[in-house]
Design brief:
The protein is built from 5 helices and 5 strands. By secondary structure, the chain is α/β, with parallel strands linked by helices. It has a single domain, classed as ATPase, nucleotide binding domain (Nucleotidyltransferase, domain 5, 2-Layer Sandwich), CATH 3.30.420.40. A 5-stranded mixed sheet has the order 3-2-1-4-5, sandwiched between helices. The termini are far apart.
């Protein structure tokens, strides 16, 4: 069984935004004027399973998705990067527009979410963004490096 079924039978535009939230993934699904939110306890690498389960519960497939978005200001750059790669890949495979979203989108009500969604330009692909300065320092690298003195 394919993880993401195809052959759409719905004609209503469907937008999905993915949001990393620590150890939780959040999926915002817009059908018409309403946004529904689904949470999944688990890490970003489970995003395809989570996306599939939400679409299946709604009797939808990946072919029903009109656009995908990623909230870029999550707590984990790794999670944001994974969600971005998955969204870019699905966008490329299924010719789905991709959007980079701000934290204001995630915190807004239905009307605000729709407004932020419309402001975010649809693209062929997006790049992940750091939520802050990287914290890799020489002190963190020292225990893992050995220097040969000859």
């Amino acid at each position: 069984m394919s993880l993401l079924k195809t052959n759409s039978h719905k004609s209503i535009p469907l937008n999905i935004a993915l949001e990393p939230r620590g150890q939780t993934l959040r999926l915002h699904l817009q059908e018409g004027d309403l946004w529904r939110t689904y949470d999944h306890e688990g890490r970003a690498q489970n995003v395809l399973e989570f996306l599939y389960s939400v679409l299946e519960k709604q009797d939808m497939t990946i072919d029903d998705v009109s656009a995908l978005g990623v909230v870029m200001e999550g707590e984990s750059f790794t999670a944001t990067r994974i969600l971005t790669v998955v969204s870019n890949t699905l966008g490329f495979m299924k010719d789905i527009s991709i959007r980079s979203l701000t934290q204001e989108f995630a915190q807004g009500n239905d009307e605000q979410k729709s407004e932020y969604w419309d402001k975010a330009e649809g693209r062929a692909f997006i790049m992940p963004k750091y939520s802050g300065e990287p914290t890799i320092t020489l002190e963190k690298l020292k225990p893992h490096t050995q220097v040969n003195s000859s």
